[in-house]
Amino acid sequence: MGTYIASVKYLWEIIEDIADQLIATGDWTDADATWTTAVKTAENARRALVHTADGVYLSLIMENGAQSNGGIYWKGLVIIFSSGWNAGAHTPDGTKYYTFVPFEVSTVTINADLTLFNLDYRLFTSVAGFALVVTPQPNATDNQQGSCIAVVERNVSKLYADAFTNFYIFVDGNFIRGELNTSSTVSALFGVNYKWWKYSRPFTLQSQTGWEGTYAALASRADGKAYFARPILHNDASNLSPIFQADMFITADNTRAINDDDEIALPGPSTEKYQITIKQSPDSAAYMQYGIKKAE
Amino acid sequence: MTFYQLTKNLWEIIDVIADDLIATAAWQEGDATWTTAVKTAENARRVVQHIADGTYLSLIQCNAQRQAGATTKYAKGLLVVFSDGWNAGAHTPSGNIYVTFVPFECRNATGVNADLAAFAIPYSLFTGSGGFALVGIPPINATDDYQSNFIVIVERNTGKLYADGYTNFYILVDGNYLQTDFNTNNCGAALFGVNVRWYRYTHPFYIQSQGAGVGLDKAYSAFKSIGDGKAYFMKPVLHNEITNVYPWLQPEFWIAIDSTKANLADGDEIAMPAPATKKYMVTLKQSPDSATYIYYAIIETE
Predict the structure, then answer these.
(1) How far A126 CA sits from the closest chain B CA (Å)?
(2) What is the phi/psi pair of residue B291, to 5°?
(3) Which residue of B225, B230, B248, B249 is the best one to mutate when testing the A interface, meaning the one whose CB has the most A CBs within 10 A?
(4) Cα A146 from chain centroid (whole Å)
(5) Mean pLDDT calculated for residue range A208-232
(6) Which domain range does residue A105 map to?
(7) What number is the ipTM of this complex?
(8) Domain encompassing residue B21
């Protein structure tokens, strides 16, 4: 089950697709009808969902304004996970975890207008959440464009009971500047100045660590099969408290015979598949090396 | 299968391994003239043959120092020889012969002082029908200044990922202070026509490699969760070549311990969830001349 698509769209369209597809699973509902993508300026194109069983809120917001961290300017997707919702103010409420997906980045003010800015993307959605990979189209002015991966997964296969949600959020890219994490945004959003966090574990941890790629996928030259171990996610930044293994994404190693677009099909009777996505970006030859879920 | 934690001379350990393997009935005596009666030079030795596979495992106490090429490094230790034939007339390995050296009693000058004839080594040893796993620490010798602990695994593993045309065996040799000189140079005279070096990883009769991650991936090394107190690890992955793109099998006789998390202690026991009965014994060891640790666990019960 689940829906996989590889296509080209604007970010606000992708946000719509994610929100609509999550609602269509029956596990999520629209959290606030005033949150739409009708207006594309600043942070106005947005959707909010609530996970019905867990009562937690997922906000997806297109940052199309003048935002920066530590002198590095960016536009992209803001992800907010919150334990509540202020129906009067129409804003996330309670405990709030922010992170963002900074694919359009520059050392000066961003040139691209995300209203009409195509992204090559791959997207998987299911009841468990979504896995998204984006590569921005080249923009001659924005000089630090990066490919990014964003995963929001609800995983109930915990190794032990803890007091936290079943969710994690993972955001990485081939060219994400360290300043985006070491400095907070110059402009607040719903009263919060925030950073890029690679790994979020609502509501106990936001960190650049706390996750391990374990054994990155390779393609055996002997039998042509792929071998990998699923990433291990922890409840602490020192990687000492494994809580579950990621299901929506895996890591890949392109030095070991595995390539972009390869498809990994797990042995039957499993129907699971992963889409390998090894991407450079307009401004970096570095590779982002992951696989995202393609079929459950 | 048997697990020991004792102190014995190397030639005695060789006898225990050989006798235990034969007792499993998967192995038999390879040559009755190979005994440990004489402890000098390389005369204390045993050879066993794996009956189903027809391959020979020779274990030889090297009690005459071998020099690492023209370097100043000299060593005594254990010689592990794997061969696909046996010359019954000459009483020597024949056919394809792979040798690896375990140079644990080392000195940065000629004249290795210890006499392995009477040199009791604290050790942990597992023996089973598939082979053995051995960890040893030489006793302190004031003259020999490069003493290293050592781990030696000889495992027959039939869980191959694909048919490869080679044996079901691999050999792993490591230590906390093994000098690379013993790999980059031939160590003394050839043995049965084969140059003697320390190889970390051997897959008879296809590959011998030395680098820390060459031909083998430790994958996800074990540590203890502070969440539930359990150990988590992934078994290592062994390859059929040195660029690690030909995964061949995962060993059963050893796992790697995470040296950065370091919250498993020497002597900790890792028991696999029931119904499995398998246990691993964590072995984090220093040696007389180095405070560096080896980070392994060897099988304790199958």
Answers:
(1) 28
(2) -85, 0
(3) B225
(4) 14
(5) 97
(6) 3-210
(7) 0.91
(8) 2-301
